[in-house]
Design goal:
alpha/beta; 8 helices; 23% helix
């Protein structure tokens, strides 16, 4: 499934932010403490909620002296809201809308409303189904709204679950993950397949974990994944190395070696062998290498969010990152990046194709809370606020 629109309300400092037209690269900018990172965090909260009790997420997300996640400091009348809509990438007329509302009285979360609506076209007519509806106490669901469908148990199509008691501390979508449902299982996978990426070089592992199909959200499995590309995805690996060599012109070659006990080593060969050993971490090479792996891996995410992709990159590194981000988003992949870098944003706007020009959303604070708005560029110039400065792209 492809996500086309996301709306978040009342999450920490964010009062409301709606992002649509996700078929093009999307960037979030704003001053400090306006909620750029909170937006990424909010989607991570939803993703983790698909496999954890909501109450268990409190220690992860309510931190740094913040006791409540709602923007109204725990006011029971204020609800955190997530609204996500999209479509099946194979069937253009298969659209979904997912809504989640919860509040957190007495330092705990309570799920109030969880609803998923499907708009589908069958062979005879257009029909709309509310395939999942939860009102805080009971759940109603239609697992198979299309003709010829059945669950694993072989039950009839349009099988209904009614008045099924649900723990309000749990999201209901995962409950139906074991059924061969045309609706709930794909949507569940889509919402669980978010990636909120923030590279942490201190968490790198050099052992084979056996499940390195995609880069981990913190980039910890960078070396095992590179080794897999090197051995079985030669085109992907060659492209990554070519990009690295164009950026670091003193690098002759880059190889990942697998030693005893499945330990990996990144070997960097310099054109001048008399130069000292290359400092991959200090020179920002690991960061751009992880970003290249993230954006070029064969299986893209349903939604990729990157918080500050410019971190640790010099001017040339930001230019390369901008090209890679635009290329990833221009292929139809869903990408949102929160950035403080004028230079990165400038490069993005310069290389964006006219037919899929990158879009920019700005977060602005008013009365202590942030509202988001889409910035519409003028014909010949566009002014964007990035961080605490104004940059004009002509």
């Amino acid at each position: 499934m492809l996500i086309d629109k996301i709306t978040i309300k009342n999450y920490k400092v964010i009062k409301e932010l709606e992002i649509s037209e996700l078929n093009r690269p999307t960037f979030i900018v704003g001053g400090s403490e306006t909620g750029k990172s909170s937006f990424c965090e909010a989607l991570e909260f939803l993703r983790l909620g698909m496999s954890n009790k909501l109450s268990l997420l409190r220690n992860t997300f309510a931190r740094n002296g913040v006791n409540y996640l709602t923007s109204a400091d725990g006011d029971e009348e204020t609800l955190i809201e997530f609204m996500i809509s999209g479509r099946d990438k194979a069937v253009e007329t298969f659209n979904f809308e997912y809504t989640l509302r919860l509040h957190e009285p007495n330092n705990r979360y309570e799920l109030l409303i969880e609803e998923e609506k499907l708009v589908a076209r069958d062979k005879k007519s257009d029909e709309t189904y509310t395939t999942l509806e939860f009102d805080g106490k009971t759940v109603n669901a239609i697992l198979n709204p299309f003709s010829g469908s059945s669950s694993k148990a072989g039950r009839d199509q349009k099988q209904r679950y009614t008045n099924m008691a649900i723990n309000p501390d749990l999201l209901t979508l995962p409950i139906f993950g074991g059924y061969k449902s045309e609706v709930i299982s794909p949507l569940n996978r889509c919402l669980k397949d978010f990636c909120v990426y923030s590279f942490n070089p201190h968490k790198l592992i050099n052992r084979d974990q056996g499940n390195d199909q995609n880069l981990a959200p913190d980039g910890s499995n960078l070396l095992p994944l590179l080794f897999r590309f090197q051995e079985s995805e030669r085109q992907t690996f060659t492209g990554i190395i070519s990009a690295i060599k164009s950026l670091y012109q003193d690098i002759e070659n880059l190889v990942v070696e697998k030693g005893p006990e499945s330990r990996f080593l990144l070997r960097i060969e310099r054109k001048n062998p008399n130069l000292p050993v290359y400092d991959a971490a200090g020179e920002g090479l690991l960061r751009i290498l992880s970003l290249l792996c993230l954006l070029r891996q064969p299986q893209p995410y349903s939604l990729l969010l990157i918080d500050c992709p410019e971190t640790g990159l010099d001017r040339a590194g930001k230019a390369l990152a901008a090209r890679e981000l635009v290329e990833y988003g221009s292929r139809g992949n869903r990408l949102i990046a929160a950035t403080n870098s004028e230079r990165l944003l400038n490069e993005v706007l310069l290389v964006s194709p006219p037919e899929k020009r990158a879009q920019v959303f700005q977060l602005e604070k008013e009365d202590g809370f942030s509202h988001g708005k889409r910035l519409v560029p003028e014909t010949e110039s566009a002014v964007y606020k990035c961080g605490d400065d104004i940059h004009e792209q002509r």
